[in-house]
């Protein structure tokens, strides 16, 4: 009896120790699995490595560990000619999950053709992945995904700010490229949303502090990149997005509604540039007749009433637009993808209760990623996979990332830029993405290496099945176009 009690006591003690252990990330780890996929009708074998790699401080001590997933095509012998794409998402505070399992990677989460969640949760092959033309690594910054700070004495400011983020991630990429022996490869940075701020700064940092030169940068749904657009420009630039959204929801007059979107938007853009911005510069001194004339035209293009536009002095905030456009139908529209509709507690108010687009995406992505990492990549950990992690306060001072990117392009004749935008994205709208390009290169001497593509979807344009195929093909062609012929010199 005493022996039985002793054994039970030991068992309880062991269980207690087991369950009281702190959940920690492994500073360094890697697990590789092998797979194959068919892309554009061709078989592509590949390996997938899920693992962690440290961030070091100036004394060589690990202070954080970043989780990554690295996909390599395995039937390619010459890595020197094989492009490498380094992929980040945004937030700040977002994991790389979005483009990883819904855009460029070899797997897609289960969802319908418009990006809505479906069950059973899980993943399937992505027949449009760019893995046929490039290897890809998806990186989760500190406190996103499974990435964590491992040195509690390190100041959070080391990671959480525009320039701190650029600095430590550039160091991490330098280590990764060295360990994987990819210095000779053509290299590309791709970022989505705040990830565009990140990679625009990183390409300059890597080029000038690590002497690592890139062939291309891809900005998916870009931020403002530190480019000034205050005052009338900031307010006026949203009108083309308003028009696209109102057109989608069939809220425009029949003569506009019957136009194709590709015909309507240039008309709205011309009005914005040539009439609206110059008039709004006058502020309160704008003639009343002219103000009413502009409000009438804005109402036609936006689907809102002339009355509410005048009440906002022509400068209608995006929050109000998302609440107002379909108010009479009892619906709101999404911020990040305005094709999505939502229901609020009450019809009155200045802003929606929530973003129905983001809610749907969280529903779709979180179960699929947790399933995929453990069951397909065979990477096991008790850590929570943070779709969005604690990274605030975020230091936004000193954001010159648009200029950083311009400078890197000016210094490197091989460096090309592709920008991708969704017409229904209200968070990082398509017209401001065009404005970025115009202001980033005032001389116009880089525009032959800059390209912009628009898609009939939102912030994550690839969630729409038709755009998933088109946008991946645009990246594929961009990579092929920006990879120079053997022996071609980098010179002007």
TrEMBL record:
InterPro entries: AB_hydrolase_fold (IPR029058), Peptidase_S10 (IPR001563). This is Carboxypeptidase. Residues 1-20 form the signal peptide. It comes from the Bacteria. Keywords: Carboxypeptidase, Glycoprotein, Hydrolase, Protease, Signal. One of its GO terms (molecular function) is serine-type carboxypeptidase activity. It comes from Litoribacter ruber. The keyword ATP-binding does not apply. The keyword Signal applies.
